[in-house]
Task: structure prediction
Amino acid sequence: MRVAITGLGVTSAIGTTVKDFREALFEGRCGIGPIQQADASALKFQNAAEVKGFAWGDEKDASLYDRFALMAGAAAEQAIGDAGVPNGEDAAVVTGSCIGGAQTEDQSYRQLYEERRTRFHPLIIPRIMENAPASLISTRWGFRGPAFTLATACSSSNHALGHAFWLIRNGVTRRAIAGGSDATLTIGLLRAWEAMRVVSADTCRPFSQDRTGMILGEGAAMLVLEPLEDAQRRGAKVYAEICGFGMSSDAHHITQPSGEGAERAMRAALADAAISPEAVGYLNAHGTATTVNDPVECQAIEKVFGAHRPAISSTKSMHGHTLGAAGAMEAVAAVLALHHGVLPPTANFTVQDPQCPGDIVHGAAREARVEYAMSNSFAFGGLNAVLVFRAGW
Amino acid sequence: MAEEDVTRRVIDTIAKTIHQPTESIGPESTFEAIGVDSLDGIQILFALEQEFDISISDDEAKKIRSVPDVVAGIRLLLAAKG
Result:
């Protein structure tokens, strides 16, 4: 069974509507700037891709849900509205999150250790649980099918989308909403990232020789999936098909990628889509701009694609590394690229690192009618998830 | 503290917690009548503990079903506190 993507929703530093997100992507507009929601002045870095002025839901939602769940709710509302799905009795909800309710957790620890409080808000547990977005979406829109949350760090929402895709392809359900969210710009986690020495003090320059690390982001992205035949029958807009999903584990190291694992995940996704490598015209890379990721990823891509290398960009250069939302946000980017025939650039690009071979889209978006796009997500801990999309035209 | 003062503060606290106007809650209101579910209930208990600087035990909490229950319980706790 072929599976269509009929609804998109996004909450990001470069747009809280799909239209704004798309325009920023195609213009190469970067959403990175000084962190406002935490005091980062004493840190080695002060920049992130932050969602400014975010608000969604009413006062009751604000007391029930952490920022990461509200962001997922905002993205889901857009995606469901976009798909025009009347109801979702049997619909599946599959979400991804790396950290969960980070802001609630941070605030609670501050109250416990710093303020020495002895009384705590009674909803800390439901606010911090990683599955809160799945429960919010399921409850709000009455989706009563399979619902679960995957936590595979930076691959979380690619795993979520892949599993939602397989649920539909295997006939378990005829509708799904899938994606991910994370809102982790708390002082505790910023300090933890600082200690890893992987965050840039400047900006995110994937594949550039002078790149200095990743830039953290926050946000959510959600996609509505359904059988292509259902979408065609009801005359829905089909952005693209989701047609391949591949997973692997490096079985190698807790933070260092092996490359070989990434390669196997890409090959598995191509095999699942039943296409050959040369069919892929665009690849939305994991492209974190860390010293280690980019060469390992580019070399793995080269091994998989050989002489038929797809055009590559890393949209993390604009919306930052949104961790558990990354896969879904980049899926939206890849799907928009296919749908509009425009490949988003890698922003902030300077000079290509010779260790990062490939046809990197940079400077400006590239107009290209591409049939298949791939989107990579590789997590700390060596857990890889790769998706393949096919243009809906 | 006078019963009317406790009642007023209890109603204000409940209204604020469940995001309802104070006029919608009377001194004799039951939680059922004002649509308080179990999740609202634990949030109300938390807010009341903060408001009156008291500690409501789980046993006492289970018996609370209405504004008068709350007011009576709080007056006892305040009296015990001196």
Remarks:
- The interface with chain B takes residues 58-60, 63-64, 119-123 of chain A (CB under 8 Å).
- The CA atoms of residues 355 and 392 of chain A lie 35 Å apart.
